[in-house]
Predict the structure.
Amino acid sequence: MGKHGAKPTPTVFLKLRGSRKLYDRKNEPKINPGLPDMPDWLPEDAKMDWFRLTKKLLDYHLITNIDGEMLARYCLLLVSWRQNVKLWEKAGFAATYAIKTDDGLHVKCLQVSPVMSAINRLEDKLRRIEAEFGLSPSARAGMGSRRTNDDFGDKSRFVSAGA
């Protein structure tokens, strides 16, 4: 049987928020942040996303050298999502289309556009990977903020020491 309950919060997120739970993670493997090798099979469109995202993720120590396959999938999904949005735009942003009776005079039902269905499925997959990498606002909200008094300039006297 699989594991039950919420997934554990990544240690990087616990460090960023200064959590006490960090000390319970003694047996967790230690993998240093690093840049994964970009797969050579990645299309040019996806490579642009790869370079943009690896820089941002590395700046926040949210990527390691073993995260390459997941990031490659994310970049491919992102390219596919963009292509589908362009198709949807060409269709006039229609979310549904009418299925008419055999004589063509009456509408039997409305069907969700196949492009819209593809966009929805891709968005779900993208959202899951974004949460893994901390790319969504809700994932970042869980990270918290570790500001120092230097971040507030000469107004540090208005900020509590634990901010």
Summary: The radius of gyration is 22 Å.
